[in-house]
Amino acid sequence: MRIYTIDRVIASIAVCENEEGFVEEFPVALLPEGAGEGSVLRRDENGQFTLDREAGRQRRDKLFCMQEDVFS
Questions:
Q1: Order of strands, sheet of 23-27, starting from the edge strand that comes earlier in the sequence
Q2: CA geometry: angle at 38 spanning 36 and 43, to 5°?
Q3: Would you state the torsion angle of the CA atoms of residues 41, 5, 2, 54, taken in this order, to the nearest 10 degrees?
Q4: 12 three-state secondary structure
Q5: CA-CA distance, 10 to 14, in Å (whole number)?
Q6: Which of 16, 35, 54, 68 could bridge to 39 as Cys pair (CB 3.0-4.6 Å)?
Q7: Where is 5: in which H helix or E strand?
Q8: Dist. CA 15–CA 20, nearest whole Å
Q9: Mean of pLDDT over the chain
Q10: What are phi and psi of 33, to 5 degrees?
């Protein structure tokens, strides 16, 4: 299973970064409903994506704390 974070969406293409830091592009049509910039996705061995809401929440919380540290 691979893990991706959606970096940005350009037209119908999602630009994603995998856990190794490499960038890959996927058609938005392949992504689950509710996925958007900053979402964390898991891709199984069949190529199916699922939205990992908990990992996305943890990522947002971590980024918020980093931002707070910078501006405090």
A1: 23-27, 13-18, 2-10, 40-43, 49-51
A2: 75
A3: -50
A4: coil
A5: 6
A6: 35
A7: strand 2-10
A8: 15
A9: 91
A10: -60, 135
Which residues, including other chains, have CB under 8 Å from residue 37's CB and lie 6 or more apart? 6, 7, 8, 9
Q: Which two tokens stand for residue 40?
A: 């964390």
pLDDT at 55: 84
Residue 27 near residue 16 (C-beta atoms within 8 A): no
pLDDT at 63 over 80: no
31 Cβ contact partners less than 8 Å away, ≥ 6 residues apart: 6, 14, 41, 49
Helix or strand run (H / E) with residue 54: helix 53-71
* pTM for this predicted structure: 0.82
Distance, in Å, from the CA atom of 35 to the CA atom of 29, rounded to the nearest integer, reads 10
Average pLDDT over residues 25-29: 97
